[in-house]
Amino acid sequence: MPDRILDSLAHPVVLSPMAGGSGTPELCAAVSEAGGLGFLAAGYKTAEAVAAEIERVRAATDRPFGVNLFVPGDPADPDVVEAYAAELAPEAERYGVELPDVPLDDDDDWDAKLDLLLRSPVPVVSFTFGCPDLNLVDRFHDVGTTVVVTVTDPGEAVAAVVAGADALSVQGPEAGGHRGSFVPRKPYGRSEPGLLDLLAAVRAAVRTPLIAAGGIGDAAAALAAREAGAAAVQFGTAFLLTPESGASAVHRAALRDPRFTSTTVTTAFSGRPARGLTNRFILDHPDAPVGYPAVHHLTTPIRRAAVAQGDPGGVNLWAGTAWRLAEERPAADVVREIGRALA
Ligand SMILES: Cc1cc2nc3c(=O)[nH]c(=O)nc-3n(C[C@H](O)[C@H](O)[C@H](O)COP(=O)(O)O)c2cc1C
User: Fold this and answer.
1) CA 124 remoteness from chain centre
2) Mutate to test the pocket of ligand 1, among 15, 16, 263, 317 (most ligand atoms within 8 A of CB)
3) Pair 47, 69: CB distance under 8 Å
4) Quick check: 196 pLDDT over 90?
5) SS3 of residue 114 by DSSP
6) Ligand 1 pocket list (CB less than 6 A)
7) Is the pLDDT of residue 80 over 80?
8) For ligand 1, atom 15, which residue shows the shortest CA distance?
């Protein structure tokens, strides 16, 4: 089946799945309806909630779309989580919330979501934070689903191809939100190759169609990604200000606020490296541990309270390096503008 779905798109433009509220069925449907490939984020949701979102997309469009799953990883170290909880006590006090007891090995309803997607198949399923095994990929192929795996280096790309992936979402370090690397401890920093170098390295390692993701904010960047070997380009941050996005008012305002002048990769909010606008919480917790998803659950009340209080200092403001190019306009306009440039 390789890239049958990618080939069928009027525009080779892919919506990033965006867990945590920014991705919505309306945004997914708008991108697919405009000729791109919309995605639903299943992360942090129950299987029932995902099923309901799939129904909403199906009611809005007949075009192909995808659902993204977080592959469960190793449980967090309880000592590490406890130490970070102690560090966060003043934050809890500041926002008037209690820090919860957190599960150390939450699997994000993995089995129930697989069951749902195998019983009631969707055109595309993508995996992030790990690689599905060959057997699982085969089961998706048997029900006619195209399988995409997020990769962040050539080694992960080869593993995903060996497992049978039909396409790879190649995520550069410029990307907004979480790094999709198979292991959360993969080092990050200044010495990493950028997206274009990464695409060239992955292109040299595998022949599978590549979807380029990370810091692509305009047609020029999309063209450069295609020149470097991508069959399609994926955008997350560029859709955050569209009316169809579910980004909070605090997140939207921060993306447009000139006082935010950079992005930072941090583990402070979730215990996994992720890129967001540099804010107070990131700066105050520079040595936050790796401990996903326990840290995600630990910070949830703080983040919720910060949003409720309209305080951009205490919530994750995920954004890629090209955030300044994001505009307030319908999602279909983004798809068509990029699509036309790539035609
Ligand atoms: C708000 C937000 C939420 C995200 N959530 C997910 C997710 O649930 N699953 C996933 O695979 N990637 C997620 N990502 C990462 C994207 O898949 C993609 O790599 C990224 O958006 C590309 O960089 P860009 O935001 O600069 O376009 C998220 C990104 C953002 C900005």
Assistant:
1) 15
2) 16
3) no
4) yes
5) helix
6) 16-20, 22, 41, 43, 68, 128, 150, 171, 174-178, 180, 213-216, 234-238, 318, 320, 322
7) yes
8) 177
Which value, to the nearest 10 degrees, does the dihedral of the CA atoms of residues 84, 88, 90, 95 take?
-170
| Residue 4: pLDDT band with limits 50, 70, 90 | confident
Give the residue, out of 15, 18, 149, 150, with the most ligand 1 atoms within 8 A of its beta carbon, to mutate for a pocket test: 18
The predicted model gives 106-115 an average pLDDT of 96
Yes or no: say if 221 and 215 are a contact pair by the CB < 8 Å rule: yes
* Residue with tokens 């300044």, as numbered in its chain: 324
Q: Assess contact for 314 and 92: CB atoms under 8 A.
A: no
CA of 18 to the centre of ligand 1 (A): 5
The pLDDT score that the predictor gives to residue 3 is 59
Please give the share of the chain, as a percent, with pLDDT higher than 90.
94
Q: How far is the CA of 68 from the centre of ligand 1 (A)?
A: 11
CA of 10 to the centre of ligand 1 (A): 22
Domain limits, the chain = 4-72+107-247+322-342, 76-106+261-316
Rounded distance from Cα 142 to ligand 1 centre (Å): 28
- 10-19, 101-110, 116-125, 168-177: which range is least confident on average? 101-110
Name the nearest CA neighbour of 169 among 193, 190, 151.
151
* pLDDT exceeds 50 at position 1: no
| Å from CA of 175 to ligand 1 middle | 7
Give me ligand 1 centre to Cα 178, in Å: 6
Which of 204, 199, 208 lies closest to 175, judged by CA?
A: 199
Give per-residue pLDDT as tens, 41-73: 999 999 999 999 999 999 999 999 999 999 999
Fold classification of 4-72+107-247+322-342 (topology level): TIM Barrel (3.20.20)
206-240 pLDDT tens trace = 999 999 999 999 999 999 999 999 999 999 999 99
